[in-house]
Amino acid sequence: MELWWGSVVVTSLLASGVAMFFGFFVKRVNEWFFERNLSEKIRDSLPPGDMGWPIFGNMFAFLKAFKFSHPDSFISSYVKRFGRTGVYKAFMFGSPSIMVTVPETCKQVLMDEERFKPGWPPATVKLIGEKSFVALSYEEHKRIRKLTMAPINGHEALTAYMGFIEDTVIKTLEKWAVMGEFEFLTHLRKLTFKIIMYIFLSEVSEPLMEALEKQYTTLNYGVRAMAINIPGFAYHKALKARKSLVETLQGILTARRAGRPTAPPKAKKDMMDNLMDAEDENGEKLSDEEIIDVLIMYLNAGHESSGHITMWATWFLQEHPEIFKKRRRAEQEEIVKNRPAGQKGLTLKEYRNMTYLSKVVDETLRMVNISSVVFREANTDINIAGFVIPKGWKVNVWFRTVHMDPEVYPNPTEFDPSRWDGPPPKAGTFLPFGAGSRLCPGNDLAKLEISIFLHYFLLNYKLERSNPKCSLRYLPHPRPLDNCLAKVRRQ
């Protein structure tokens, strides 16, 4: 019997040893394959890290953390194993990658357009568009951004949009107050989509708007899914949704071009009109493909991001009554109280005076991290933070890690708008809309839309959670309230 048990133990130890050796060898395959053509000097200067399993790299650990566990655990595992270097090597989204996770390195990568070009995964580019901002070179991006910025973020544009946003928010809240139970996030996204559709396409029928919103929802889920182009998978559905969106937008664009010669001049142009008329200093206009990809990008980001941030800001305020009652609501009541007699509705000046609400929105942006990571690619071998990023390797800039770093933001999982009471955050420490020349062009419009909603909600309404299973989770792309029922009650 003792001999038998001894044989079992020895066999088990040998099997474990073989498995460990095999696992160690297999996990070195990616490193050997992608580092074999690098010079010895560069190999010795690579950041610490590991490149995971062949083909899949580190994606299993990434998906496990972001879909089933705590999203911050993915980078935390690197910090525990390799120290807080802020730069790590990995194999992500099908490419050898360098992950940068601290403010200094994030800022350096985002601000250096000459040495870092866009590096988004091909699957993402295929969904958002070859002519969208995620794929354009520096010069192309600069040209299209210049042509599209003023109609979205300028003082005149924001003033023009305020009335419609305000009217839509008021009517929507009144409707919600008599609906009973409904899916809060789902209806918020419908609200933000209606607003962004008005800004970009003005008059669109309700049936068409609903159909487009469904297609955008499908597209967005595909952007966040594995790029598996097989029927039944989210990415395959997203490709079909994009095709449908392109066909619809091309139809609208073609009809407008055909009707322009005989149509009377418009009193107010929407974004499609502005894109059709825009031309650079050389007199070159945007192609149909450029216009459609810009519209797809803006329409998707303009309602998904705004809807999610509005949801979370509302929820955080409800979960923190001391903030809701003492500070946040008081500011909104003061704005209304000081309004001149005869004035109807908010002004841009009043919006600018919502100082505490601005902190609430910024704190929500920090915690929710709608955009957790952006992608760049090294144009040449680059020295950064004492390490080398090889030419052609992807660079993943992790906004979320910066925003949830306790050394940057003490008690990062605590919703605390007062953390913004001091001086503005240092460069590289607050990146909800990116940084540098590729800063999200719709950031001012998004914050205006969110603030107008919160202004009227805080003054007149209260959210009641109907489903006890609904809970707050700090996810990179929050969806826990998608199917959570809530009520909006007038106060």
From TrEMBL:
Pathway assigned to this chain's UniProt record: Hormone biosynthesis; Plant hormone biosynthesis; gibberellin biosynthesis
Chain positions recorded as heme binding sites: C440
Membrane topology: Single-pass membrane protein
Domain of life the protein comes from: Eukaryota
The keyword Ion transport belongs to this UniProt entry's keyword annotation: no
Keywords: Heme, Iron, Membrane, Metal-binding, Monooxygenase, Oxidoreductase, Transmembrane, Transmembrane helix
CDD domains, alphabetized: CYP90-like
SUPFAM superfamilies linked to this entry: Cytochrome P450
A single GO molecular function term of this UniProt record: heme binding
GO biological process: brassinosteroid biosynthetic process; brassinosteroid homeostasis; gibberellin biosynthetic process; secondary metabolite biosynthetic process; sterol metabolic process
Record has Disulfide bond as a keyword: no
GO annotation, cellular component aspect: endoplasmic reticulum; membrane
Transmembrane parts of this sequence: 6-26
Location(s) in or outside the cell: Membrane
Family: Belongs to the cytochrome P450 family.
Protein name as annotated: Ent-kaurenoic acid oxidase
Originating species: Stephania cephalantha
